[in-house]
Amino acid sequence: LIVPVGSTEQHGPHLPLDTDTRIAVALAHRVGADLGHLTAPAIAYGASGEHQGFPGTVSIGTAALTAVLVEYGRSACEWASRLAFVNGHGGNTEALRSAVRLLRTEGRDAVWISASTDGGDAHAGHTETSLLLYLSPHLVLVERFVAGNVEPLPELMARMRRGGVAAVSASGVLGDPGTATAAAGEQLFAGMVADCAARILRWAPDGVGMLT
């Protein structure tokens, strides 16, 4: 069973609140169809506290998300021999690590995968906007594109830990959506599908249950 895990949070003035969920769902369904596995409805709320300074964000926090993932896994693994969470939001990582580690110590074959791309920008910039232009172009408000903070993410982390995304970007954007195209999104998505499918086929979880 493949389970997309996303979030409901601001994605600048031009992308929908369910951007992370939408990407995780598309990835999970494509990989599930390619490999012949079941795909579940999404877990659409996550740990998005870093975006709480913006309207539209609804975060349930790490503790609550961990509990949801554990109980979900315990229930689903009653009938699914293997369970893979496909994560679309970086803020969910701590919950996934904790939940999957517990599920595995309980004898359940649960894992998680990050729906990410190498070298992409951080939030609502070129990468996510390109993906949405490919997956859901009718939801991208091109006329509201605004470049956000384009500093490398490692240089922003200290300020973000103190004050969230609002401390480093008034628009909520990290990156520049102005360079995004549907063609780039198609290429990015194809790479994500290939990577995710290969990891599932290998089924080689690391110490925190992430597929390598």
Brief write-up:
This protein has helices at residues 19-35, 61-76, 93-105, 126-135, 153-163, 182-202, and strands at 2-5, 83-87, 110-114. The protein is mainly α.
Description:
Helix 1 crosses helix 4. The chain has a three-stranded parallel β-sheet, sandwiched between helices. With 212 residues, the chain is mainly α. It is built from six helices and three strands; from the N terminus they run E-H-H-E-H-E-H-H-H. The chain is globular, with a radius of gyration of 17 Å.
Terminal Cα span:
18 Å
Give the overall silhouette: globular
Q: Averaged pLDDT, please? A: 97
Multimerization state: single chain
Number of helices: 6
Task: Give unreliable regions as ranges.
Answer: none
**Helical fraction:** 40-55%
Order of strands, widest sheet: 1-2-3
Please give the largest β-sheet. 3 strands, parallel
H and E order = EHHEHEHHH
What structural class do the secondary elements suggest?
A: mainly alpha
Number of E-state strands: 3
Strand content: 5-15%
**Rg computed from alpha carbons, rounded to a whole number of angstroms:** 17 Å
